[in-house]
């Protein structure tokens, strides 16, 4: 107990030097902390350094908006919605899983948008990297193939709706007069409408099969057996026999041409 009390006293003296000084005991010297100096340069940065900084800021901005650009300005929306309708129509809750559907949608989007990205690379990205274009001109050239793709897919009534809502000065006489911020929501609404139409057509054969199975079960007096449990194997069999994945994917890709 004496050793424990002595340890407590010594620890208190080490952590509280003022107490040690008040008690008349000697305190071991403490090593001084190193000095830290922070200074900023006063020189004016070179124009090339400013340009690199601005380019890095623009790159980070584009990367932060990349998911929205990929989803809203490409074929991704239509593809992923139609594939989701297909899974719901078949009655398989998590087959294929979400990761597979998203991955397939992404690669189909890359396939559909490959000509657009090739044009962007040839007309905007490569000349800009070769210091042949200014940043604003490169952005304008890069947007031209994307706008052409969206104009080819957008519905006229959806485009007219957003032009009316935007209250543009004067009636646009050409596609160049329609701003991109008006074209993008019209394109997204058109893609959703087309995807729902395709989803309705996908639902029809599976709905008919569900009705047939339900009628058969009711005629047999099997009221407690859920029709979806019996119809699910027949749906999968029908989908495999007609080569459903090739039909759905082929129809999706051809709908953009």
Estimate the helix proportion, in percent. Answer: over 70%
The count of helical stretches stands at 10
Q: Uncertain segments of ≥5 residues (pLDDT<50)?
A: 1-6, 8-23
Arithmetic mean pLDDT: 77
Proportion of β residues?
under 5%
Backbone shape: elongated
Major sheet: none
User: Cα-atom Rg, whole angstroms?
Assistant: 33 Å
Structural class: mainly alpha
Q: How many E-type strands? A: 0
How would you spell out the order of helices and strands?
A: HHHHHHHHHH
Distance between the termini: 90 Å
Task: Considering the chains and any ligands shown, give keywords for the structure.
257 residues; mainly alpha; 10 helices; elongated; disordered N terminus
Written description of the protein model:
The structure is a single chain. By secondary structure, the chain is mainly alpha-helical. It is 74% helix and 0% strand. It is built from ten helices and no strands. The chain is elongated, with a radius of gyration of 33 Å. Residues 1-6 and 8-23 have low confidence and may be disordered.
Topology:
Blueprint: H1 2-15, H2 17-22, H3 47-72, H4 76-90, H5 98-129, H6 135-153, H7 156-166, H8 180-219, H9 227-241, H10 244-254
Outline of the structure:
The protein is an all-alpha fold and 257 residues long. Helix content is 74%, strand content 0%.
